[in-house]
Amino acid sequence: MRERIEAILAEINDLKCRKEQEIEEARVRLLGKKGEVTKLFEEFRSVAPELKKEFGKSLNELKNLASAKIEELRNALENSAEASAPSFDLTKPGDSYPLGSRHPVSIVREEIVAIFRKLGYDVAEGPEVEDDWHVFEALNFPPEHPAREMQDTFFVTSGENPILLRTHTSSVQVRAMETMPLPIRIVCPGRVFRNEAISARAHCIFHQVEGLYIDENVTFADMKQAILLFAREMFGSETRIRMRPSYFPFTEPSAEVDVSCNICHGKGCNICKGTGWLEILGCGMVDPNVLEASGIDSKKYSGFAFGMGVERIAMLKWQVKDLRNYFENDLRFLKEFETNI
Ligand code: DAH
């Protein structure tokens, strides 16, 4: 019996299995009902009493060793299976790179421009750092007008015709009137600067789109129709507009335009403060003085102009109540516009 125990011990030590099936076969061969170890236990019954102690101990050790070896082989097989399994699925489509999203101000600016392009308007741009002539003087701003004061405007130089950061994109209409052949039909998107305390409703940097149309026989009715078309494209086909008399130095007559509230459709809500109307832009017929200042014959030509704040339109479109969201570039805010790429 001693030799048989030793032979099985050697077999256990040399045991090498690569497959689950081989391990199971080894287990049955050693520990199964008719296995070698099991058989030794049966034979143990007829061992001489004086040898029982010695063989009993050896047989128990042999059985434990065989079970431990089978367990060890199983674990090794499992680990190697895990290690060799591919860690990724080659048939899956690749990860896409995060592309980011367009800024909501860019989305709205492009939408405004696209609407006017459809109406035959070209895009014109001008410098952000401008002179007093193009920002104020040529636009009929009287010398005492508050917009010319230091507290509203960022001046770069002082003296005659000082350099400043443009406070509105109306300066681009002056440049257009000075240089472009008539008729002129343009929109001028751009950044503007005002010396304002930053709040939910005001910022020192924001964006405007200016519009200008000059030709023979351009009337207030043409302006109204262009603005109505714009409002319906931007806020929905049911949108109505109303014009309130207003004042701008460079237009006469001047008006401020409201659109019917796109939230409550005119019934009154907290966005339109119960009025049913939202202000979107300023406009008017170009003052003859302004035409003449840029060398255009005001007897022959007439025109209209309008100006709107891009952030304002964006706030109305998406009901964003705090203007600062558009400048802080918090990714959580910007990601809301991701689908609009
Ligand atoms: N420039 C004006 C502003 O910044 C907006 C504006 C009003 C532009 C009336 C116009 C206009 O062309 O006709 O507040």
**SSE order:** HHHHHEEHEHEEHEEEHEHHH
Assembly state:
single chain
Low-confidence segments: none
Tell me about the biggest sheet? 7 strands, mixed
Number of helices: 12
Morphology: rod-shaped
Question: Which percent band covers the strand fraction?
Answer: 15-25%
Q: In a nutshell, what does this entry contain?
A:
Helix content is 40%, strand content 19%. The chain has helices at 2-14, 20-31, 36-44, 49-84, 104-118, 132-135, 170-179, 220-235, 288-293, 310-318, 325-328, 331-334, and strands at 122-123, 129-131, 163-165, 184-193, 205-215, 241-248, 251-260, 277-286, 302-309. A hairpin with a 2-residue loop joins strand 6 and strand 7 (251-260).
What would your notes on this structure say?
By secondary structure, the chain is α+β, with helices and mostly antiparallel strands. It has helices spanning 2-14, 20-31, 36-44, 49-84, 104-118, 132-135, 170-179, 220-235, 288-293, 310-318, 325-328, 331-334, and strands at 122-123, 129-131, 163-165, 184-193, 205-215, 241-248, 251-260, 277-286, 302-309. Helix 3 runs antiparallel to helix 4 (49-84) and helix 5 (104-118) crosses helix 10 (310-318). The chain starts with a helix and ends in a 7-residue tail after the last helix. Bound molecules: 3,4-dihydroxyphenylalanine. 3,4-dihydroxyphenylalanine is lined by residues 168, 170, 210, 248, 251, 282-284, 305-307.
